[in-house]
Amino acid sequence: MDRFVDQVHFDDCKISRGDADKELKQHTKHLNKLRDKISENIRTYYAGTDASLPLSGWYQAIAASILFSGGAERTSAQHVAGKVTTPDAELYAIRSAIVNVTSHDDCTDIFIFTDSMASAHRAVNPSIHSG
């Protein structure tokens, strides 16, 4: 990553307490426009990722990703992540999306949509960390 730092960008949604509904609608509109633009190029892949941890300690976390290109779903994946923390499960979901995207030889650009910015930053951090 230290060689390609200029090729990775983060678009974090910061909602203030003032007019949260208005800001959320504006950010949703921005994301919809972004999705529409990137879905025009068949060689641009974009993925949505998420993880879910059970409320009870009896069950394991699930990590999921869904991959699109040209506005069409290409693949989806669900994985049992084990008994891990929420950030680690989110990181696993992001990793799953990246693995699926990079298996397509025609890919020129990758967009990952996630609700865990901390895990997104960890996904491109080359230092030693959990996950």
Can you give a write-up of this model?
It is a single chain. By secondary structure, the protein is α+β, with helices and mostly antiparallel strands. The chain has a domain at 42-118: Ribonuclease H-like superfamily/Ribonuclease H (Nucleotidyltransferase, domain 5), CATH 3.30.420.10. It has three helices and four strands; from the N terminus they run H-E-E-E-H-E-H. It has helices at 20-38, 86-102, 117-123; strands at residues 44-52, 61-69, 72-82, 109-113. Strands 3-2-1-4 form a four-stranded mixed sheet. A hairpin with an 8-residue loop joins strand 1 and strand 2. Helix 2 (86-102) packs across helix 3. This is RNase H type-1 domain-containing protein.
Structural category is: alpha+beta
Quick one: CATH superfamily of the domain at 42-118? Ribonuclease H-like superfamily/Ribonuclease H
CATH class of the domain at 42-118: Alpha Beta
Order of helices and strands: HEEEHEH
Tell the overall outline: globular
Query: How can the largest sheet be summarized?
Result: 4 strands, mixed
Mean pLDDT: 89
How many strand units?
4
Give unreliable regions as ranges. Answer: none
Strand order of the largest sheet: 3-2-1-4
Enumerate how many helices there are, as a single number.
Answer: 3
Provide the gyration radius in Å. Answer: 16 Å
The CATH topology name of the domain at 42-118 reads: Nucleotidyltransferase, domain 5
CATH architecture of the domain at 42-118: 2-Layer Sandwich
* Strand content range: 25-35%
Q: Fraction of residues in helices?
A: 25-40%
End-to-end C-alpha gap: 17 Å
Organism: Psilocybe cyanescens
Protein name: RNase H type-1 domain-containing protein
